[in-house]
Automatic annotation (TrEMBL):
<dbReference type="InterPro" id="IPR057207">
    <property type="entry name" value="FBXL15_LRR"/>
</dbReference>
<feature type="domain" description="F-box/LRR-repeat protein 15-like leucin rich repeat">
    <location>
        <begin position="130"/>
        <end position="207"/>
    </location>
</feature>
<dbReference type="InterPro" id="IPR006553">
    <property type="entry name" value="Leu-rich_rpt_Cys-con_subtyp"/>
</dbReference>
<dbReference type="InterPro" id="IPR032675">
    <property type="entry name" value="LRR_dom_sf"/>
</dbReference>
<dbReference type="Pfam" id="PF25372">
    <property type="entry name" value="DUF7885"/>
</dbReference>
<protein>
    <submittedName>
        <fullName>Leucine-rich repeat, cysteine-containing subtype</fullName>
    </submittedName>
</protein>
<dbReference type="GO" id="GO:0019005">
    <property type="term" value="C:SCF ubiquitin ligase complex"/>
</dbReference>
<dbReference type="GO" id="GO:0031146">
    <property type="term" value="P:SCF-dependent proteasomal ubiquitin-dependent protein catabolic process"/>
</dbReference>
Length: 349
């Protein structure tokens, strides 16, 4: 009896609908595994040792995840075998002992890279990843404590990144200056700087050069932020979503700056900004685009302040409030309230 060829195996595989049966199919032999991989679009793997067999047979993979350290050899194999790759998730630490472990060299087709909590990332390795991912649009470096200002220098030259997450990174004002002075300012749409407590108002002042930026997260950024910092932030021309959670130095003056300057603002999150009072909230009265404002743990606000803002903002339909709101206040069991000719959803903390 003649051996089955690839065409026959593909026909057989295409007729198998059950997922477990398909797994049994490609466990039979390497040839059968090769056939199964032709249809593969996503790969989540914990044993890099079998990539020599899988990757060359998987030209249509678009999403790749590996939670074990990958050597440069495997990353090169991934780049050459999977030209349609769009999402690359390599969350675990690279092996610092191996000389061939400069992550990212040769990976030229990726759209997204997630390096969350990869604590051993070094500047040189980070630069290699950025240089190799020619179509990189999404980069998550959250928790990478070794990402520094020098790391951001190469990012500033990017012409493709649209979302950048730097949560908890050890960056300073100089790093934000690098980002804002390069080509990145013309493509970056979303920036997460939460828990970057080494950045001051001087660093935030550079962000107004980012003309495409519309989503900014500055929560838990320490005590360096003052009204001058929020004034600089409010001058970002297209900002429409702003997170300032637990920013203790955000005041009524800060809200006045934001409300009067950010005419495209739709969402603002002020949870835990305890210095805010009703005077600051009233600055948003008649705002043309505001859709949602969250004020949990902001206790120095009265129901009259809420009524004034909601009734005069044509797009405002969601308000988050503290249950310790100053009196007078309605029954907190209610969630939807009528304000003249409009309804607004009240979300109580």
């Amino acid at each position: 009896m003649e051996r089955l060829g690839d065409d026959e195996l593909i026909c057989i595989f295409d007729k198998i609908d059950n997922h477990e049966d398909r797994k049994s199919f490609y466990q039979v032999s390497k040839n059968w595994l090769k056939v199964a991989c032709i249809r593969l679009r996503e790969l989540d793997i914990s044993f890099p040792g079998i990539l020599d067999d899988i990757l060359p047979a998987s030209p249509y993979i678009v999403k790749f995840t590996c939670l074990k350290p990958l050597s440069n050899t495997y990353l090169n194999l991934l780049a050459h075998s999977c030209p349609k790759l769009q999402y690359l998730n390599l969350e675990q630490d690279l092996d610092p002992e191996k000389e061939d472990c400069e992550a990212g060299h040769g990976v030229e087709h990726d759209d997204e890279v997630d390096l969350t909590e990869r604590l051993l990332v070094r500047d040189v390795r980070f630069d290699s990843i950025v240089r190799s991912c020619k179509n990189l649009t999404y980069l998550d470096l959250g928790g990478c404590l070794s990402v520094t200002d020098e790391s951001l220098k190469s990012l500033g030259a990017s012409k493709s990144i649209t979302k950048l997450i730097l949560t908890g990174c050890m960056i300073t004002d100089l790093g934000l200056e690098y980002l804002a002075n390069g080509d990145l300012k013309n493509c970056l749409e979303s920036l997460h700087l939460d828990e970057c407590d080494r950045v001051s108002d001087v660093g935030f002042s550079h962000l107004k050069q980012m003309v495409i930026l519309y989503h900014l997260v500055l929560s838990n950024c320490g005590v360096l932020n003052t009204d001058s910092g929020t004034l600089a932030i409010s001058q970002i021309p297209n900002i429409n979503t702003l997170h300032l959670l637990s920013s203790t130095n955000v005041t009524d003056i800060s809200l006045s700056n934001i409300a009067s300057t950010c005419k495209k603002l739709k969402f603002i999150y002020l949870l835990g900004c305890e210095a805010i009072t009703g005077e600051g909230l009233r600055c948003f009265a008649h705002h043309p685009t505001l859709h949602c404002i969250k004020l949990y743990s902001c206790d120095n606000i009265s129901w009259e302040d809420v009524e004034l803002v909601v009734s005069t903002c044509p797009s405002l339909t969601i308000v988050g409030l503290s249950r310790r709101l100053k009196t007078p206040m309605p029954e907190t069991g209610r969630e939807a309230f009528n304000f003249g000719d409009k309804w607004c959803w009240i979300d109580w903390d």
